[in-house]
Specification:
The protein contains ten helices and 33 strands. The chain is α+β, with helices and mostly antiparallel strands. The strands form eight sheets. Strands 26-27-29-28-30-31-32-33 form an eight-stranded mixed beta sheet, with helices on both faces. A five-stranded antiparallel beta sheet has the order 21-22-23-24-25, with no helix packed on it. It has a four-stranded antiparallel beta sheet with strand order 5-6-7-8, with no helix packed on it. About 4% of the residues have low confidence. One of its GO terms (molecular function) is serine-type endopeptidase activity.
Length: 581
């Protein structure tokens, strides 16, 4: 249960037979949980005052005894996470620190019997363990034989292995053209989300795999592919809790298609669109014009990847194009643009450039209905996949963090200049948009080239890292050291001062119009936005046609769809007004 006042989760267990809450377990500040012992035991992790997961407890349901503390981690740079394998045979405890990542295995049938270290690697590595018919499967991006890798790979080891350290073998032969983005398991199939260049694909392989030690290329395992449109920007697995079901749920996102929740029956190759965001089938003709007939149930044997209309996409009305933009150091930055067929892009089109570039997260390029108002007015919507974000592997992320954070800003500025120089967007009519760390990116780009932008929207932006990160008692601050730098390190602090939006505001310069939204909430430092706005107003050349506005709320907008609609409408109106003024 979410405690809004304290921005944390509380743990309660309800007896479904009687509808009443159990007397135990009950806990505050819970970060995650995992069931064990056929539902008779519950393991949970709690956080400290700085929201760091640091204690692991085990509670026996129906017992009057106290919850057992299995592990407490006093070191402030170590974080805990607990989960169970999908077949409920094991629990895995992940510990993350600035120096290493470890995975411990716990027997689900006897969670108090102790834990065994089964994997250890360098810091910042992603490690997920699953179990299938006597084998442990490890999905990770850890270094191989001391050599860093850019993408994830899949290993396996017999669950009964007695070797120390445990021996792991590769499941697939490395293929630089086919990148594994994610995996999911059920009793009879292994499902992989893969990427070839910019194209995402979803395929399944029958289980169990051969017990032969030699790894094989994926194509030799006869994968079954789900046909999806070429413009898909991300595939996300659903909860898929039923391990023994052959139907698995995924969310398909695209710049040209409202998010589609898809149930994929792997055993017979059929798939169904269960839900599609903001798309009522009977209103499609009213909302988007004369859409083609809709068919939401398909069979792989009668459908090919080119039949995008079966996915209810909007390519009849909007176009999507891809570019590679050269950054100052020669690195090619992926740039995606969408525009209306009926209001074709031209040298007079206004533009909105999105960016994020932090935490290794893939830039959200999904279709958003609030952008339709801009697209139908002839706007070009662009997405810059700058360094520091995801999609390009670990190196892409590392080349845009800490002392290399300026690479993110230079990439974003290069994409903005490309849009103007190639006459995709009219000069003087480009706006920027960034959320949280993306707000830092856009604000830094404005400091670098204020005349390049006409307007900007910054949602709960991170604008003063050199001051905020000095204060370790603020929420999430220690976790941000790895991303933005540690101010106690001279090199990190010097780099931080170079990209910090607050520290680099230009004097006596005409700034673009800016709308900043923030919240009086413990999760966000509202003072950062207030300080930045005050300094921009003080330093920059005043122009009533280019206001610098600060909008504050007392609620977390992400938790209320009504507030989201209200804020989106305000942002859209602001952008249109600034371009027309």
């Amino acid at each position: 249960m979410y405690d809004k006042d304290n921005d944390c989760f509380k743990l309660f267990v309800r007896n479904l037979d009687f509808g009443s809450l159990c007397s135990k377990p009950q806990a505050d500040r819970v970060s995650n949980i995992a069931w064990a012992k056929d539902g008779q035991a519950l393991l949970y992790v709690v956080t400290d005052d700085n929201k760091r997961p640091f204690r692991l407890y085990c509670s026996m349901l129906g017992s009057n005894g106290e919850d057992v503390l299995l592990l407490e981690e006093p070191r402030e740079n170590i974080y805990l996470s607990i989960r169970h394998t999908k077949d409920f045979r094991f629990l895995t405890l992940n510990t993350f620190s600035t120096t290493s990542s470890k995975v411990f295995l716990i027997n689900s049938a006897d969670p108090l019997s102790g834990m065994t270290l089964i994997w250890e690697c360098e810091a910042q590595a992603h490690c997920i363990i699953e179990h299938h018919q006597g084998y442990l499967y490890l999905f990770t991006d850890a270094a191989k034989q001391g050599q860093p890798v850019d993408h994830h790979y899949l290993l396996r080891s017999p669950s009964a292995c007695s070797h120390s350290p445990r021996k792991w073998e590769s499941v697939f032969v490395d293929d630089q053209e086919l990148i594994i983005e994610d995996v999911d398991f059920c009793d009879s199939y292994l499902v992989l989300i893969v990427r070839e260049g910019r194209k995402y694909r979803l395929c399944s392989v029958s289980l169990p795999l051969s017990t032969a030690k030699a790894s094989l290329p994926l194509k030799e395992l006869n994968p079954q592919y789900l046909p999806i449109p070429d413009h898909v920007s991300q595939i996300l697995p659903g909860p898929n809790y039923d391990y023994y079901s052959s139907i698995m749920r995924f969310m398909i996102t695209s710049p040209l298609m409202p998010d589609a929740i898809v149930d994929y029956n792997i055993s017979n190759g059929k798939w169904n669109i269960i839900q599609q965001q903001n798309l009522l089938h009977e209103r499609t003709r009213v909302l988007y014009g004369s859409a083609s007939s809709i068919n939401v149930s398909n069979d792989l044997s009668s459908c090919n990847a080119g039949e995008d209309h079966s996915w209810n996409d909007l390519s009849e009305y909007y176009a999507c194009e891809y570019y590679d933009v050269s950054s100052p150091d020669g690195v090619l930055v992926p740039l995606t643009i969408i525009y209306s067929h009926h209001r074709k892009k031209s040298s007079k089109s206004p533009g909105l450039l999105h960016g994020h570039g932090a935490y290794g997260e893939i830039l959200d390029k999904r279709w958003r209905s609030e952008l339709k108002s801009l697209l139908d007015r002839g706007w070009v919507i662009a997405f810059a996949d700058v360094r520091g974000g995801g999609g390009g592997g670990r190196k892409w992320h590392h080349d845009g963090r800490r002392t290399k954070k300026l690479n993110s800003v230079r990439d974003y500025v290069s994409c903005a200049k490309f849009l103007v120089e190639e006459e995709i967007v009219q000069e003087g009519k480009l706006a920027g948009w960034g959320y949280s760390a993306g707000g830092l990116l856009v604000a830094s780009a404005i400091n670098s080239c204020p005349d390049l932008f006409r307007a900007a929207v910054l949602q709960v932006p991170f604008l003063d890292p050199s001051s905020t990160l000095v204060n370790p008692i603020l929420p999430l601050t220690p976790a941000d050291y790895e991303e933005f730098g540690y101010p106690g390190d001279a090199q990190d602090f010097q780099a931080m001062r170079q990209y910090s939006p607050y520290d680099n505001i230009q004097k006596d310069t005409l700034y673009p119009a800016v709308l900043i939204t923030s919240s009086f909430n413990t999760r966000f430092g509202v003072w950062e936005a207030a300080k930045w706005v005050a300094r921009v107003r003080e330093y920059s050349v005043y122009d009533p046609r280019r206001p610098v506005l600060l909008n504050l709320t007392t609620d977390i907008v992400e938790e209320s769809r009504y507030l989201q609609c209200k804020e989106s409408a305000m942002e859209t109106a602001f952008l249109i007004k600034m371009m027309d003024s």
